[in-house]
Amino acid sequence: MQQISSVNNKTIKDLAKLNKKKYREDTGMYIIEGFHLIEEALQAGRKFQYLLGTDEALNKVEEYGVDLSSKSVILINKAITRHLSSTKNSQEIFMVLKIDQPKEFPFNYGKWVLLDNLADPGNVGTIIRTADAAGFDGVVLSPESVDLYNPKTQRAMQGSQFHIELIKQDLASVITTLKSYDIPVYASMLDKSAKELPDFEKVPQLGLVIGNEAHGVSDFIAKLSDEKLYIPIKGQAESLNAAVAAGIMIYHFA
């Protein structure tokens, strides 16, 4: 085990930068925080670059089979945990992992959520967590969608990033691939040609497109889709939150 006691240490300075997208992309690494996420990573067999925590916090993760004598384990103080943390109430435990996101859509039969330019990290993380809970195979994010390794997205996913496929890729190519295997693609949107969600039967495979929070599914992606669907609003609310709407649709097809 290493021990670092200064926030001015070069390793600590470099790791603190991983809370910013540019440095995650430059280094190919990202940081997660908290016992639950770290437990999920360990249970999924993910190998870490570094595990950092206070003495008390590191003792808690030892029960997960972590070798605390490893050079990859770093004992830090509370001042450093505050420096590294992206939350107000840190659990004083951090893990640095390699970004292992596939660069191409690894086609497999099943059920996929396709996110078209979603901008809110909480929404994206919640949708991924819901897709995981409902037994979907994966989530594909368009290149313009929020960064998967944003700390807020990581917290909202609650470890689901270690359970299902997550890919960033051009949605048009993914939709073309799905349709070439006769897998239907449904786009969620308010449109005159859209059908109500209850009119759709469950299918063994599908691609379900969820659009941007403000602008919905782009016209180009909508045209590529086989059908358009919407959730009927029974009260006076104008619309549903993107993650809530996605959850309703995901479980309809689960």
Automatic annotation (TrEMBL):
Q: Name one GO biological process term.
A: methylation
Citing just one GO molecular function, the answer is: methyltransferase activity
Domain of life per record? Bacteria
The RNA 2-O ribose methyltransferase substrate binding domain covers 31-103
Does the record carry Cytoplasm as a key word? no
Keyword annotations for this protein, in alphabetical order, are: Methyltransferase, Transferase
Q: Name one Pfam family in it.
A: SpoU_methylase
Q: Does the keyword Transferase apply?
A: yes
Concerning its family, UniProt says:
Belongs to the class IV-like SAM-binding methyltransferase superfamily. RNA methyltransferase TrmH family.
Identify this protein by name.
rRNA methylase
* Taxonomic placement: Bacteria, Bacillati, Bacillota, Bacilli, Lactobacillales
